[in-house]
Amino acid sequence: MIFSRNGVTPGTDEAALENCVQLLEDGQLRDEFETELKLFLGILDSVLPRPDALPFLDAAKLYAEIARRTRRRYRLVGDFDPSLYGPKVRELIDRHMVALGVDTVLPPVSITDPDYQTKVARLGGRAKASEMEHAIRHHIRLHADEDPVRYRRLSEDLERILAEHAGNWEQLALSLTVLLQEMTTTDPERAGGISPNLNQVESALYGLLAEETATDGVITDDQGQRLSDFARRLHELAGRQTTRRDFWRHPVDQYSFISELTTALVLAGMVGQEQAPALADKLFEVIRANRGRIVAQE
Questions:
Q1: Residue at a domain's end among 105, 139, 169
Q2: Residue 35 domain-assigned (yes or no)
Q3: Are residues 142 and 85 in the same domain?
Q4: For residue 288, is it within any domain?
Q5: For 189-221, how does the pLDDT look when each residue is reduced to its tens digit (9 = 90+)?
Q6: Fewer Cβ neighbours under 10 Å: the N or C end of the chain?
Q7: How would residue 188 be classed by pLDDT, with cut points 50, 70 and 90?
Q8: Do 135 and 92 share a structural domain?
Q9: How many domains does the chain contain in total?
């Protein structure tokens, strides 16, 4: 098996399991493991329930647990599915997973799940740090389009924390816990929002406007107020235009709305005519990503 070839000894204790999961962070090794596991379990299913299969049952259970932990840790598409390897293997592994209570121990995929913090707190230092790292990466990938500026900053914070505390698992876990709390808080200011007076969509629009218009990254109070007012105006405009029937199915309506955004940027003096179309496209993509949060305006 792949583990022995890479100096890792699989085992049922948490340290041994974690060593296996850490090894499989490498995508190429992970693909190799899944190929070998599929072959092994397929053969086992064809042999069961004959006595010849008995010496291999414990290995099947162990590798299946490693596969499930790995897919959960690295947020791979789909959980480990024993039904892919035959009905007898499925029954064997399903009973094993229920007996272990794996699903009650492994942290949920989403960091916004109410049980996430409780379950991740039970992990050891290295496992906890690794779990939070990949949970944060997954969350950023899923939500980056909703607020590009904020999630780019969070991504940079993540990489800085990983570099600063490399190998110091306990300190890394502590710093990632702080970052994770910042990501999941509903308080606009603690969450990196601009103002408690801006909602989530407006804050995302503000961040993009500020990034594109700030001089040397500095926004004065007057500029900030101007940008806040304009972000609210864009949100209201989106509420009038994008909530119309079948708007998101009609490219012509979408192009017209982008043109309206372009004109609004120029008339408000946010950017010049040459820069306005590109910024309007970016603002439109933020609005698209947040369309479920935008309500109709009269």
A1: 105
A2: yes
A3: no
A4: yes
A5: 444 445 558 999 999 999 999 999 887 767 888
A6: C
A7: very low
A8: no
A9: 3
Compute the average pLDDT of residues 121-144. Answer: 94
What CA–CA distance (Å, rounded) separates 116 from 110? 7
DSSP 8-state class, residue 107? P
| 29 vs 229: CA distance, rounded Å | 52
* Cβ within 8 Å of residue 145, ≥6 positions away: 285, 286, 288, 289
Residues contacting residue 10 through CB under 8 Å, at least 6 positions apart: 1, 3, 16, 17, 20, 62, 63, 66
4-45 residue pLDDT tens: 899 999 999 999 999 999 999 999 999 999 999 999 999 999
User: How confident is residue 137, by pLDDT bands cut at 50, 70 and 90?
Assistant: very high
b/e 153-162 (16+ beta carbons within 10 angstroms → b): ebeebbeebe
pLDDT score of 123 more than 70? yes
HSE, side-chain direction, 13 A CA sphere, residue 3: 18
Final residue of a structural domain among 154, 184, 214: 184
Residue type, 142: L
What is the extent of the structural domain holding 28? 2-105
pLDDT of residue 197: 84
Q: Is 218 helix (H, G, I), strand (E, B) or coil?
A: strand
